[in-house]
Design a protein that fits this description.
The complex is a heterodimer of chains A (340) and B (111). Chain A is an alpha/beta fold. In chain A, 25% of the residues lie in helices and 26% in strands. Chain A has 2 domains: 172 residues, 3-Layer(bba) Sandwich (FAD/NAD(P)-binding domain), CATH 3.50.50; 154 residues, FAD/NAD(P)-binding domain (3-Layer(bba) Sandwich). Chain B is globular and about 55 Å long. The chains are: A alpha/beta (340), B mainly alpha (111).
């Protein structure tokens, strides 16, 4: 009889893992809570570092599935229970069985309202990086609430990351390069606009990232080394922002038309509950803890349950794809080889 | 001595072989959070005193790490101990306490 594998989450990691599992002959089902697959990538306009349309990646992943394995949409898995040497997955009123489970529940964006001093949800033209992506998709440019193009835009790095005041010590990895990408795109969309990036460190760790940073410099993006302390609204709706220009050792203030908050990654709500019944606990950052960060990055400590993608910590797409394939090898070994 | 109008240049290099790091060690022994600064500048950006004087708490801490004890002590006097920096520090450095320790160290060590 065909062995069943359940993939929880239909983002890039879940889709890639499902394709590979099906190719190995497993009866694979992807359970996706939203009404569409592709996860956060499906909400994005273009991807770093080469600014390729995100839809290309999502569509390729989906077309490779070709109906096998099945993707069950609008089906949030709320409970995951051991059941002999199998597992039971429960949603609102249904339950499913599987011989092995891959958790690929991904991440959620940091809720920018929590950094109240930045004014998100209070001032009109304070937006998140995710909202800017939507603007690029819909209008091809950043637009203020009144429909006009901003003349000065500031990108704020590390919103909800590297910040113990919101209990997130960790770095979300991808926001630095995303800010640089979006800064370039904003400049290209509105060449007369002044664009600023307020950063602490620029973590350009991937291939092509440092090149993107250099391109931003060449295109006239201004970099200010300091963390934003607060934003307030001026008469007429412009925003006054304050930071320390740490390279000059002096406080700095400036007015901008639009503030873009580079929101980090947080553990997806429900993931810790999902692993609770298996006796698993989240790691210090709240993501799924893996058995061995270096040597067993796909294993959870429960045989038959594996993890891939950003549910075990911030990841870019490449790392999510790689982790999906790594998890598939472990699942294959588990299901086809008797001894551990 | 005849004043020729010039003098040997003052060396402008931080020489960590000769730096006096006693204040850094003394403070760190009493408040380990001193080690945790990532130089983001949030403290200085929110600083009440820094709006009117050239006071940067981040720079003060750096002076201590480079052995510029006199500068650190001098700068610490500009702080009004309002504690806003403590509220914003993303690494939970006990900033206000660091200032108090610098002042205390100065009193203890002064001849």
């Amino acid at each position: 009889m065909l062995k069943k594998v359940a993939v929880i989450g239909g983002g890039v990691a879940g889709l890639e893992a499902a394709r590979q599992l099906a190719a190995l002959g497993y009866q694979t089902t992807v359970y996706e809570k939203n009404d569409h697959a592709g996860g956060h990538t499906s909400e994005w306009d273009r991807l770093f570092p080469n600014r390729r349309p995100a839809v290309e990646v999502v569509d390729t992943l989906k077309s490779q599935l070709n109906g096998n394995p099945a993707i069950v949409l609008s089906t949030p898995i709320t409970e995951l229970l051991p059941n002999g040497d199998k597992f039971t997955l429960k949603t609102n009123n249904k339950s499913f069985e599987a011989d092995a489970v891959l958790i690929a529940t991904g991440f959620e964006l940091f809720q920018a309202e929590r950094k109240e001093e930045y004014g998100y949800g209070i001032y009109d033209n304070v937006i998140t990086s995710a909202e800017l992506e939507k603007m690029f998709t819909e209008h091809g440019a950043p637009l203020m609430r009144n429909g006009e193009k901003p003349k000065r835009v500031a990108f704020v790095h590390c919103v909800g990351s590297r910040d113990e005041k919101v209990n997130h010590l960790y770095c979300s990895k991808v926001c630095c390069v995303t800010a640089v990408k979006q800064a370039i795109e904003a400049k290209e969309a509105i060449p007369e606009a002044e664009i600023f990036c307020l950063y602490m460190d620029l973590r350009m760790f991937g291939p092509g990232y440092e090149e993107l940073y250099k391109e931003a410099q060449q295109k006239g993006i201004n970099f200010i080394r300091g963390r934003l302390s607060e934003a307030s609204e001026l008469d007429g709706g412009r925003l006054l922002i304050k930071t320390e220009d740490t390279l000059a050792s002096r406080p700095l203030k400036m007015s901008v038309d639009m503030l873009v908050l580079m929101v980090g990654m947080t553990p997806a709500e429900g993931t810790s509950k999902l692993i609770y019944n298996l006796g698993l606990k989240p790691n210090a950052d709240g993501f799924i803890g893996v058995s061995d960060y270096h040597l067993k990055p796909s294993e959870t400590g429960i045989r038959g349950v594996y993890t891939a993608g950003a549910c075990s910590g911030p990841n870019n797409i490449t790392d999510s794809i790689n982790s999906a394939r790594s998890a598939v090898v472990e699942i294959h070994r588990y299901l086809s080889v008797k001894e551990p | 001595m005849i004043d020729f109008g010039y003098a040997p240049l003052k060396i402008n290099i931080h020489d960590l072989d000769k730096a006096d790091l006693s204040l850094m060690d003394w403070i760190t022994a009493r408040d380990e959070s001193f080690r945790l600064c990532i130089a983001c500048g949030s403290c200085t950006a929110t600083c009440t005193a820094g709006n009117f004087t050239n006071f940067s708490f981040r720079e003060l801490c750096h002076s201590i790490r480079r052995g510029e004890v006199e500068k650190a002590v001098r700068e610490s006097e500009k702080c009004m101990l309002c504690g806003k920096c403590t509220l914003v520090c993303p690494r939970n450095v006990n900033t206000r306490n660091i200032i108090k320790l610098v002042r205390k160290a100065n009193q203890n060590f002064r001849v």
